[in-house]
């Protein structure tokens, strides 16, 4: 995919951010197919020339939205950046639950929404997967740190464990949102932690 144009001035950054934020909100509720360029322009207040300066096509805009979703997701679980103990992993799960205990929760995972819509798109599906892998990478780093300290079995595979944890998180998020009930997410996170703890020496 062709590289997106980079904003080089504060004003340009504000304009680009406004476009991406508007597209992210619209795509969250209406999906990619239901979000037209005209809707994005109307919501962002940007002009068409500005839009096409930063994004040559809709796929580039979706790519930027994926990045924004990941930024927001990780921003809501800051403990994921400093996973150095088993207690840190507990904190990470609590931060996820805190988001979904708020009014209006449990909410849908924006990456999960996109995955359901573009999962068969050969250009966009790899970008969603890349975002998930970035999310997983912080879990893998934390598990590797535990293994290096002797708090995770030497034969454990941090990447595989991180993938398993992500699978639990995503399944829990999906059912919690559909059922308007946080217990599937609580149970999924508990199962993920129990699985990780089973690899303690």
Describe it.
The chain is an all-alpha fold. It has two domains: 10-56, Arc Repressor Mutant, subunit A (Orthogonal Bundle); 67-198, Orthogonal Bundle (Tetracycline Repressor, domain 2). It has nine helices and no strands. It has helices spanning 10-30, 37-44, 48-54, 58-75, 86-101, 110-118, 125-148, 158-179, 183-197. Helix 1 packs across helix 2 (37-44) and helix 8 (158-179) runs antiparallel to helix 9 (183-197).
Fourth-level CATH superfamily of the largest domain: Tetracycline Repressor, domain 2
Number of helices: 9
Give the low-pLDDT segments. Answer: none
Distance between the amino and carboxyl termini: 45 Å
- Main beta-sheet strand count, sense and barrel state: none
Q: What structural category do the secondary elements indicate?
A: mainly alpha
**What's the level 1 CATH class of the largest domain?**
Mainly Alpha
Tell me the radius of gyration.
Answer: 19 Å
Estimate the global geometry from the Cα principal axes: elongated
Secondary-structure element sequence? Answer: HHHHHHHHH
Q: How many structural domains are formed by the residues?
A: 2
Number of strands: 0
What's the CATH topology label of the largest domain?
Answer: Tetracycline Repressor, domain 2
Write the layout of secondary structure elements.
Elements: H1 10-30, H2 37-44, H3 48-54, H4 58-75, H5 86-101, H6 110-118, H7 125-148, H8 158-179, H9 183-197
Helix pairs in contact: 1-2, 1-4, 4-7, 5-9, 6-7, 7-8, 8-9
GO molecular function: DNA binding
Pfam families: TetR_C_13 (PF16925), TetR_N (PF00440)
InterPro entries: Homeodomain-like_sf, HTH_TetR, Tet_transcr_reg_TetR-rel_C_sf, TetR_C
